[in-house]
Predict the structure.
Amino acid sequence: MSNLEKAILIIDEELSKPVPKEDVTLEDVADELDEVLFD
């Protein structure tokens, strides 16, 4: 699985969490991406 695919899964997961959308900031998503892309 490529890093891009992992990133997409993580973003999808983040967005599907039962939190109001405004609570998920781009910064949160960027942090998640950093973790995946630079492991």
